[in-house]
Amino acid sequence: MEQGNYSVGLDIGTTKIVAIIGRENEYGKIEVLGTGRSKSLGVHRGVVNNITQTISSIQQAVEQAELNSGLKIGSVVVGIAGQHIRSLHHSDYITRPNSEEVIDNEDLDKLCNQVYKLVMLPGEEIIHVLPQEYKVDGQSEIKEPVGMYGGRLEANFHVVVGQVSSIKNIGRCIKSAGLDLGNITLEPLASADAVLSQEEKEAGVALIDIGGGTTDLAIFKDGIIRHTSVIPFGGNVITEDIKEGCSIIEKQAELLKIKFGSAWPGENKDNEIVSIPGLRGREPKEITLKNLSKIIHARVVEIVEQVYVEIKNYGHEEQKKKLIAGIVLTGGGSQLKHLKQLVEYITGMDTRIGYPNEHLAGDSDEEVASPLYATAVGLLMNSLEANKKNHVVDQEEMHEEEVLVGQEHDMGAKTNVASHTERKSIFDKWSEKLKDFLDNAE
Fold first, then answer.
1. Cβ–Cβ < 8 Å for 371, 356
2. pLDDT digits (tens, 9 = 90+) for 87-97
3. Which domains does the chain carry?
4. What dihedral do alpha carbons 4, 19, 188, 105 form, nearest 10°?
């Protein structure tokens, strides 16, 4: 198989680890070349708590993806979640030395880099700095200030913060599995890339990604990320409840949830019963589906209500902040029967299930278009995007070096190259910082 410009997304979840290899086809859609999936051991509520087990799970998923695609995996983009993630709002400004020159990308980089220097609580590190809107000389609500004149450039930022130790542990697992860490991205942001349309982001939408260990929330309005949060409950808690409530083992509880589970108790008749084989010669257990869905309902209501509190915290009830496109559910937990109806009932907002198929090429495997893979597809998109940026910068540098060779006497060209090399995206700079940090931590 020819070695094209392919990228890899690696979703380290609480229940499963997924590696997806893909590239962009000529229509700008993503062609999935191979996927690998393994049971995740050593991750609890989105945070690595057993390095050795996590490494072997990552290796399993990666090997499977390599076998599927016949390609070798080098660098990966990884998602981060977990209850240690928090987000805050911050505004900052820079004063430009010459207001007669137009604002360019370097000014924006300078402003963003300033935010990375914010003093955090001990043991915390900034993961993302996401500009919301800009102000130029007091003129507000500017989405794209590049090309405008102005002396004072100001912006509101959505800053995502996580624990240094958790980030380092993920880096450690990736490194020990024989891979390079390309980028770290917040999982709800990755899922949002995969399942939301631009219209929804403009109108206002809340993405709820129900995973095994955590439920991630990302809120968009006017095309900009407004709020992110990670709630430390997910599908696993529901399985736990079924296990306790019905006195059965976890494997059976998980199967019951997937096959017969429903989030709406009124749905089941009283006489619907499932018989579960007993352990080691014990009598089989009989469980009514009504009871099963009551157990599931109680826990799902709790999760949805917590998410709704976050949506209210963002200010959904204010007219200007109203989320017109409502809610999009994704992740493995979104496949629970009647969940959509329950969420609509609790929140009163329009709801749909989000499939990551919008960005995938038409002939993609059906399995990849399942909500289970939303985060992994989003991470793959992120990885392709980063590769594209690097590719463009490399090409520009090569072109300019050629110009340089031709015009050694022209000093102007030299400064030109310098400016391009500096214009790496903030994210690349941050990745380099993180890589150095991880190498020194060894």
1. yes
2. 999 999 999 99
3. 235-299 (3.30.420.40)
4. -30
